[in-house]
């Protein structure tokens, strides 16, 4: 009996996420700070399109970065809130989308040749989501919940402001390549 109730809750959660067009993604990221450091790591993000117009996007992003030049044994972790505008490719429409995202968050860890207990970050990204499989026929695109696989290349500019270090500001240019699951619903316009 418990598993049946759990499955119903899980199904309702999937329908809710699909109605808000949820896109969880995970991938690799790299950034080069101007006169600072080079990092390489993993990024994880989940984005929701707001139901009013389905063009406004909100979400959260977490990054775990290793500083590879200059080498450091201390990693850097980041957590950011994401707000943006644009569209994802739907399974019954175009294979390419475009998103402009802004990020505000915090970071800690390696910072050039020093370590910081906390840094603030602000950034902007241009993302071009690419649907990886062929379009579905329109008469098959009316399911309540459906999933499509998307590739998410991203080009980023980030400004870091660190506390307790000599060179407080750092501007990073970077990019990431993520693989995401696009949950959507045929009930959504």
Question: How would you describe what is shown here?
Answer:
- The chain has 189 residues and is mainly β.
- The protein has a single domain, classed as Porin.
- 10% of the residues lie in helices and 60% in strands.
- The chain has 1 helix and 9 strands, in the order αβββββββββ.
- The chain has one helix at 2-19, and strands at 22-33, 38-49, 56-69, 76-87, 98-111, 114-127, 130-131, 146-162, 169-184.
- Strands 1-2-3-4-5-6-8-9 form an 8-stranded antiparallel β-barrel.
- A hairpin with a 4-residue loop joins strand 1 (22-33) and strand 2.
Short key terms for the protein model shown above:
189 residues; mainly beta; Porin; 8-stranded antiparallel β-barrel; 1 helix; 9 strands
**What general outline do the C-alpha atoms trace?**
elongated
Q: How much helix, percentage-wise, in residues?
A: under 10%
Number of helices: 1
Backbone CA Rg = 19 Å
Number of strands: 9
N- and C-termini, Cα separation: 36 Å
Biggest pleated-sheet summary: 8 strands, antiparallel, barrel
What fraction of residues sit in β-strands?
Answer: over 45%
Structural class: mainly beta
Summarize this structure briefly:
This protein has one helix and nine strands, in the order αβββββββββ. With 189 residues, it is mainly β. It has a single domain (2-184), classed as Porin.
């Amino acid at each position: 009996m418990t598993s049946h109730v759990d499955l119903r809750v899980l199904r309702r959660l999937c329908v809710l996420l699909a109605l808000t067009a949820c896109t969880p993604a995970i991938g690799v990221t790299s950034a080069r700070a101007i006169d600072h450091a080079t990092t390489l790591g993993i990024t994880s993000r989940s984005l929701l399109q707001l139901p009013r117009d389905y063009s406004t996007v909100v979400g959260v992003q977490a990054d775990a970065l290793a500083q590879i030049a200059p080498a450091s044994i201390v990693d850097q972790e980041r957590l950011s809130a994401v707000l943006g505008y644009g569209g994802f490719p739907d399974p019954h429409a175009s294979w390419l989308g475009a998103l402009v995202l802004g990020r505000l968050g915090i970071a800690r860890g390696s910072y050039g040749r020093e370590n910081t207990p906390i840094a603030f970050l602000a950034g902007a990204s241009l993302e071009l989501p690419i649907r990886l499989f062929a379009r579905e026929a329109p008469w098959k695109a009316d399911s309540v919940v459906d999933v499509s696989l998307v590739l998410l290349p991203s080009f980023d500019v980030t400004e870091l402001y660190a506390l307790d270090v000599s060179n407080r500001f750092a501007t990073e240019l970077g990019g990431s390549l993520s693989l995401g699951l696009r949950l959507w619903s045929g009930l959504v316009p």
